[in-house]
Each structure stands twice: as C-alpha cells, then as structure tokens.
Amino acid sequence: MKQIKYVSADEAVSHIPSNCHVHLSSVASVPHILIQALCRRADAGDVKGLQFHHFHTEGPAPYSEERYAGIFFEQGFFVGPNVRPNVNAGWADYLPVHLGESQKLYREGHIKLGAALVQVSLPDEQGRVSLGTSVDCSVAAVESADLVIGVVNPNVPYAYGDLLSLDQFDYLVKDDTPLVTANFAEPTPTEVLIGKNCAALVEDGDCIQMGIGALPNALAAQLDGHKNLGLHTEMFADGLLRLIKKGVINGRCKKIDTGKVVASFLLGSQDVYSFIDHNPDVLMRDIKYVNNPFVIAQNPHMKAINSATEVDLTGQISADSIGTRIFSGTGGQVEFVRGAVMSEGGKSITAFASRTNKGKNKIVPVLNPGAGVVTPRADAHWIVTEYGAVDLYGKSLQERARLLISIAHPDDREALDRAAFERFGPHWHWVK
Fold first, then answer.
1. What are the tens digits of pLDDT across the range 79-133?
2. Closest residue by Cα to residue 157 from 213, 210, 103, 119
3. Domain 189-430 carries which CATH code?
4. What share of the chain is helix, strand, coil (3-state, %, to 5)?
5. Which of 88, 218, 274, 425 counts the most CB atoms within 10 A of its CB?
6. What whole-number distance in Å separates Cα of residue 268 and Cα of residue 238?
7. What is the number of helices (H) and of strands (E) in the chain?
8. 9-174, what's its fold?
9. Could you report the per-residue pLDDT of 283-292, keeping only the tens digit for each?
10. What is the reported pTM?
11. Could you tell me the CA-to-CA distances from 405 to 3, 148, 195, 307, 380 in Å, in that order?
C-alpha cells in the first residue's frame, strides 16, 4: 500500500495552473475545502481562467459567481439550484450532454482536464478508496486529468463498485466535513395520485429507475405492496431505501447484477450514505456503465420513470428548461428511455403534475419558445399525471393530442381542444 502523505488544501491547489479545465466530484460529495482554497488563491490574484465541470453540486458555488468573472467559469453538465441564477444571468454556463456520455468528454479529450478534484473514503488495506456517493464521471476525470487531488474524508462511505487506487493521486488532503444531506418534503395529494398511476404500470419482478424528490418518494410509497423489484438507476434516495430495507427491492429477478442495487450518485439522508458503506449488495458504478442503454436493456421489464417541465400535444418532452431559462439538464433521461424500451417487457414513463405550483398548465399546445426537447416525440411512450396514464407509442399526432388532453387539468382541456382544432383542422373532432 502506498504511504499516504497529506498536504494542506492550499498547498494542493497551488499546483493547479491557470487557464485549465477542472473537474469537481459532485452532488453530496463536493470537495468544498479545495474550492475554498482556490477562492483564496483567486482573491490573492494568483490564478485565473479556470473552467469547472461537474454534475449538479450541493452547497456554495462561488466558482459560478459574478465576483469571480474572468477567474472562474462554471460549465456544469447539470444545473442545480445553487448555480441556476448565475447560469441564467450569464455568469456561468451549461454544457448539454447525456450524463452517460459526460465521461466520454474526458476520456476522448473533448475536454482536456488540467485537474480533477474529488472526495474519497478512507483507504482499505490494499490502498483503494471509494468515491462514495459520487462516482458519476469522476473515475474518468481521475484517469484523464494532468493533476489529481483527493480529499480523504471519513464521512465518505466506502461503496463497492468502481474503486480508485491511492497511486492515482498526486496530492491528498484531509477533511472531516460531513457530506451534504437532503430531506425531501412529504408528497402532496397530487403527487400521491401520480404515484398511484405510475405504480399501476409497475409489476412484480420489474427493474426500476427513478430520480429523487417528493414525486419519486410518492411513487416509492405506492410500490410498498410489490414484490421482487430490481433497481438500476442513476441515483436513489430515502423513498427507495425504505423499499430495499423491506425487501420489496431485492434484485432477485435482474439478469445482470442480480441481487445488487446499481447506481452512480446519491443524495439523501445520512441513512442512505450509511446504508451503502461496505455494503456488498450495492454497486456504485461509473456513469459509463450505469447509463449505457445497452446495459440498461439487459434487465427485462425495465421501467424508467422520469419527469418533465412541459409536454406538447405531439409528445415532445422538455425537461431541462422553461423556455430559454435553463432549469436542470438533459441528465440521463434519454439513455434510460431508450434502455427501457429496448428491454424485454420494458416501459418508459414520464410523470409530472398537470399544472405547476403557480397554476400554469404543463401539457401545452406548443412548448415555450426556446424550450429544449430532451425526449423527442418518437421516443415518448407512457405519460402520467394525477388524472391518468396514456401510452403515446404507435399513435398519430392527433391521437396523441386527444390522449394528452384527457390527462390534462380539467380546467385546461377546453383550451387545449381548441388549440388542437386550430392545429389539425376539420378532422380533429373525427379522431377517436
């Protein structure tokens, strides 16, 4: 085992050259101690031109702020609440990419990394460390970067899957800051109804994918009576953890990684992080593997459940933006959509409330100008709201419109019907 030699955060980041690309491990496991040290360098006028890449990050994001213009510039692969205002103000940016291909940007040199800053667990007896809750594209970053700095933190769980060797690090820094945790609100009555409609499409023995938040937790609660479910997903949180602990999710019917929970990054309570620590039934894998549609498709009866910001009457699904305003990112939605429909007996499901919290309809005649189409209409299958579930696959434009109107908010249906008539012409009311 390599002898561990630790340096201070300031010493470690002093070796990062100006005008280079920098990767950060993401979500709950951001190396904030290194970011703070870089800010001190920036405040001293000792560095400039750093471009940051990462999945969504939790906690402060000074690298996206106006005060560091010309010194730092964020180009995240996914936009979280902490950088969203700065991205939409132009002080930071969004780099569209399927999350499963984010690692490809590094490995194939489309982004030449000057440095990779990651947070890792305590090493095992063989000198291997785990990226814990944030494997994502960090394995590729460590493999590709000119300079690799690791923050060894005892709060990072040692998760099995894709591990790293201490030999891959140029500098190591100690930190014992707890990982960021998240507790999601209890589902609303609307979200409970959506959860029930989604759960009706999931059968015993299915393998599932879903995200985090109140809506996925609402769905998880409705799966309590199911049996022998599998889990192959980008991420999971407490709702799914409860199903794992109850044995509802046991992976028994999975054809690959049988009996294992497979994910790439996590955000949840400390219970979630403790659960994966030294747990042989959980594999935290490179996003290259987790989000690969051909890997996803190997598990039969794959049910991919994703969300949307808007869906138009032809089935175009927007999920990364609200008009021109970037809200999140492409994520792995299309990868899981395609993997699920290639799976034997699989289904792609897009679930959302029929209206926003401000009462604006989300099933619309046309997408807002500038909205990004994340899932094309040809890939749209099951669409679910609190008013029901409809399958668009194999349906014409007019048939799709009629189905979508049937699950829109009742107060929006007349206007949508009128818009459909104006679009499709005199045959509209003939279509059944």
1. 999 999 999 999 999 999 999 999 999 999 999 999 999 999 999 999 999 999 9
2. 119
3. 3.40.1080.20
4. 30, 20, 50
5. 218
6. 6
7. 14, 22
8. Glutaconate Coenzyme A-transferase (3.40.1080)
9. 999 999 999 9
10. 0.95
11. 64, 52, 20, 18, 15
